[in-house]
Design goal:
Layout: E1 7-11, H1 20-30, E2 35-40, H2 58-73, E3 77-82, H3 93-109, E4 113-117, H4 128-142, E5 147-151, H5 159-165, H6 172-179, E6 185-188, H7 200-210, E7 215-218, E8 250-253, H8 259-275, H9 281-293, H10 295-311, H11 318-329, H12 334-343, H13 351-356
Parallel strand pairs: 1-2, 1-8, 2-3, 3-4, 4-5, 5-6, 6-7, 7-8
Length: 357
């Protein structure tokens, strides 16, 4: 395999949770393609977000322990992404006790990596970068995880973050980079939250600001949110040149809501790094679709790609909708089942879900 940054999955979307069986399938399909990291951080797991200070229920803790072991057997590092909700606004003794207990529970699960996620939270803290670095270093002393990562509050150049969460502090990235220990990894999504293209020049600038190569948190093929969940994201990766590899310490994709279908674009990302300037995104899509789905279903998906990815649920006519549901209902394959469920509205993510998860 050619030189590429460690590839990973960061299960960081809003919307319905994957099953443990589906997670195992994703790891099994992607590990042979160089995916070496899996972070469990779904927004729908309240015990990682709004109820972070409470322990996971025993049944979930057991599943997490089993999944950590499974990842290890597949040669994949297993991490958890914790969003300690707005803790940087009040990092007092009670917050520290709750966080210490949470980190001890994670160590018991057998995690190798830990990500502290400060994204999508409002900040009332003027010295935000310094406060966040302080929390990260405190976490490093308490946690047994071998690798620590952080998602900054401002994880993209995108002005939408300033509109929604308040104006970013001046020189926030530089301040955070200077304050963090060099071993801590930092997530970054690119010039936009969902970047159409990520270039070596951009990554060079961010690496300079942070004083380290970022881990790319790539918001493709994720399709959460009211608008995006009406579309299936299936096409091969574009706008991620293999030359990016020398400017990254990792490349993690935020997957689509459909676990098996997400592995198709995921495989194309590995191919784009392997093939460099020879990469062809539609050819890669067809190869990956055949590997995941088998020849017949892959052929059908290719024929319907335009309507599934570009037209979207709201604009498919009733007749076409019925025909698609019947067509994919005839395939005995779990990925065809995902398309049927999507057509039935199972994966629709509302604005309310985004605001409350």
């Amino acid at each position: 395999m050619s030189n590429h940054p460690p590839l990973g999955i960061i299960e960081g979307f809003y919307g319905p949770l994957w099953s443990w069986h589906e997670r195992r399938q994703v790891v099994q399909l992607l590990a042979p393609h160089g995916y070496r990291n899996y972070w469990y951080a779904p927004k729908a797991d309240a015990f990682l977000r709004r109820r972070w200070s409470e322990p996971h229920p025993d049944s979930v803790a057991r599943e997490l322990t089993g999944f950590a072991r499974f990842c290890h057997e597949q040669g994949v590092r297993f991490g958890i992404g914790l969003s300690p909700f707005e803790i940087f606004n009040n990092f007092d003794a009670a917050a520290k006790t709750a966080l210490k207990n949470k980190l001890a529970a994670f160590d018991d699960l057998g995690i190798t990596d830990l990500a502290i996620l400060f994204d999508d939270m409002k900040s009332a803290t003027p010295d935000l970068a310094a406060r966040q670095a302080e929390i990260i270093h405190w976490v490093a002393e308490q946690s047994g995880a071998g690798q620590l990562a952080v998602c900054p509050s401002y994880y993209s150049d995108d002005p939408v973050l300033d509109r929604v969460f308040g104006q970013r502090p001046e020189h926030y990235l530089e301040s955070l980079g200077r304050a963090l220990a060099p071993s801590v990894q930092v997530f970054w999504t690119g010039e936009e939250v969902c970047s159409r293209e990520i270039s070596p020049g951009h990554l060079q600038r961010i690496a300079q600001a942070l004083g380290r190569k970022p881990v790319l948190w790539d918001n493709y093929p994720v399709n959460d949110g009211d608008r995006m969940s009406r579309h299936l994201h299936l096409r091969g990766f574009t706008g991620r040149p293999a030359a990016n590899s020398q400017h990254l310490s990792g490349h993690a994709i935020n997957p689509a809501l459909q676990p098996l279908l997400t592995t198709i674009p995921a495989i194309t990302l590995a191919q784009s790094y392997q093939q460099g300037t020879n990469y062809q995104y539609m050819k890669a899509f067809r190869q990956a679709a055949e590997e995941v789905l088998g020849a017949d279903l892959a052929c059908q998906l290719s024929a319907d790609l335009l309507v599934l990815q570009d037209t979207g649920l709201q604009r498919i006519s009733e007749d076409r909708h019925r025909a698609l549901a019947e067509c994919y209902g005839r395939f005995d394959h779990p990925a065809a089942g995902e398309i049927v469920k999507w057509l039935a509205g199972f994966y629709q993510v509302s604005d309310e879900m985004v605001q409350t998860q």
